[in-house]
Write a structure and sequence with these properties.
Number of helices: 12
CATH superfamily: Aldolase class I
Order of helices and strands: EHEHEHEHHEHHHEHHEHEH
Radius of gyration: 17 Å
Strand content: 15-25%
CATH architecture: Alpha-Beta Barrel
Helix content: 40-55%
Bound molecules: 2-phosphoglycolic acid
């Protein structure tokens, strides 16, 4: 049995005060893990705001070294004071900041070393989707990101499957198609790399324009174990119905 995980990726939004207010309005529900991923400056205040609530905190990125002369970077040692999770390889980081499967892999291995669980993002572009390359492309991302992990580490990974064309566009993917892609390009690849029990243990979120009016259809799919939510995670009246839907599924 995989526990659902509903994560809010706040991206580059919210000041410290705004973030703490939003965090206090989010509640954990039975049967679903709730993770808030604020920008770095607000991580400490969000961590305080959710203390004792059962809501967990994640970062949106991380460097793979523990400390040193790496101007502008944040290390896993710094994050683990506040966070349980870290999002790695979001498509925006791949597109604008040069993230690759190799850097995602290095970061994921370091995250485990420091007790952080990586939420590893993958997903194809519209061109790749239309060319029928989704399964091969996403499978390659998974293969690269999970390289050199132990079976125990791999089984703890959270994967967020986010087709790039569905992120922030209001055009979500079809839930049945997502279910099929997750099976073929994520669970089958993990089963090949490790074994079927690891493939069945990994939690896979869908991400891309998840909203209260489409969440139930996604949560009803056998391979989907939650969602990584951008826009709708910035408003409690939109995010809490998503948590409720995951709790009921
Ligand atoms: P969206 O973003 O929910 O605004 O589409 C999802 C994401 O980027 O994780």
């Amino acid at each position: 049995m995989r526990i659902q995980i509903m994560a809010g990726n706040w991206k580059m939004h919210k000041t410290v005060a705004e973030a703490a207010k939003l965090a206090r309005s989010i509640k954990k529900m039975e049967g679903v893990e709730v993770v808030l991923c604020p920008p770095f400056t607000a991580i400490s205040s969000v961590s305080n705001a959710v203390a004792d609530s059962g809501v967990k905190v994640g970062a949106q990125n991380m460097y793979w070294e523990e400390k040193g002369a790496f101007t502008g970077e944040i290390s896993p040692v710094m994050l683990k004071e506040f966070c349980q999770y870290v999002i790695l390889g979001h498509s925006e980081r791949r597109q604008y900041f040069g993230e690759t499967n190799e850097t995602v892999n290095k970061k994921a291995l370091t995250a485990f070393k420091h007790g952080l669980i990586p939420i590893i993002c993958c997903g194809e572009s519209l061109e790749q989707n239309e060319a029928g390359e989704t399964v091969e492309f996403v499978g390659g991302q998974i293969h690269g990101a999970l390289a050199d992990m132990t079976a125990d580490q791999a089984s703890k990974v959270v994967i967020a499957y986010e087709p790039i064309w569905a992120i922030g566009t209001g055009k979500s993917a079809k839930p049945e198609a997502v279910n099929d892609i997750i099976r073929k390009s994520i669970r089958d690849v993990i089963a090949d790399m490790f074994d079927e029990s690891v493939a069945q243990a990994v939690r896979v979120q869908y991400g891309g324009s998840v909203k209260p009016d489409n969440v139930v259809a996604f949560m009803g799919q056998s391979e989907i174990d939650g969602a990584l939510v951008g826009g709708a995670s910035l408003k409690p009246e939109l995010f809490m119905p998503l948590v409720e839907a995951a709790a009921k599924s």
